[in-house]
Amino acid sequence: MMKHLRNLGFTNRLALYLVLLLIGMVAGGFYLAVRSIEASFTGALYCYTVIATPLGTALSVVLARVVDKNKAENTNNGKGVKFAAAEARNFAEEDSTDSPPI
């Protein structure tokens, strides 16, 4: 799995990290809610809501743009740009030791 993560591009890796951050935010909110119930706290959790709501909104906007970018990268004559490039190389893996992937 780690080899697969190394082969991902920057934006795809960023999207994966943002999804993990969103999962952590949801888990943190659940933990905070459980602890509040255990302590018989009946008030609102403004401290969490004020931070989590704008951050979650911003992360969802960024994730939508990553999806749009990937969609734009993979459309060309119905095949996809990356598929067409691989087809031109006869599906041989390119050696990218001297430069980072674009």
Describe this structure in words.
The protein is mainly α and 102 residues long. The protein has helices at 2-7, 10-38, 46-73, 81-88. Helix 2 packs antiparallel against helix 3 (46-73). It starts with a helix and ends in a 14-residue tail after the last helix. The model has no long low-confidence stretch (mean pLDDT 83).
- Structure class: mainly alpha
Fraction of residues in H or I helices: 55-70%
Element-level helix/strand string: HHHH
Spans with pLDDT under 50 lasting ≥5 residues?
none
Instruction: Report the sheet-strand fraction.
Output: under 5%
Question: Largest sheet, if any?
Answer: none
Q: Measured on Cα atoms, how large is the radius of gyration?
A: 20 Å
Which terms summarize this structure?
102 residues, mainly alpha, single chain, 4 helices
Short overview:
Helices cover 70% and strands 0% of the residues.
List the topology elements.
Blueprint: H1 2-7, H2 10-38, H3 46-73, H4 81-88
